[in-house]
Please model this.
Amino acid sequence: MKQNSEYVILVDENDHPTGSEEKLKAHQDGLCHRAFSVFVFYMAEKEIEILLQQRQFGKYHSGGLWTNACCSHPKPDEDTILAGERRLFEELGIQIKLKDVGGFHYIAKFENGLTENEMDHVLIGFSQNKTVDINPQEVNAVVWMPISELLQDLIDHPKKYTAWFAPALEIALMNLQEVK
Model:
């Protein structure tokens, strides 16, 4: 393994680990790997709100697009839920317990030649407050939005969201009752 490189867990179509690879190379070669998408909810007075982040414009793909609270990859030999909790704290300063509520496989090709070929685990949790401490290297902006408003915005402006956001959101919303 190269020093100072991030590695991802390569997986088969059943999400069973088959090895590891440097993150950038996995995306250059379109190799199937494990990922997670974290959704954070807040019980507001009238409606549940969801935390969205706008990805930093300098990200290696999907920069400037809006998505769930955070997304990333577990490191080799790292538990996926613990990885999600770690990244949520690193990117947004939020410490909450997460639950894995399902997953899906997707492939997205980007203009810069990179490919996401991911077995994406959907992790959800509720925050007791709306306090967020943005890591400016990862996140450009955040917003708490009522779910009904988000669903309408997805219909009206689908291109402002990441490729994985809509399918991951569907799984998160179907499983909200399990986490409340």
Remarks:
- DSSP finds four helices and nine strands in the chain.
- The radius of gyration is 16 Å.
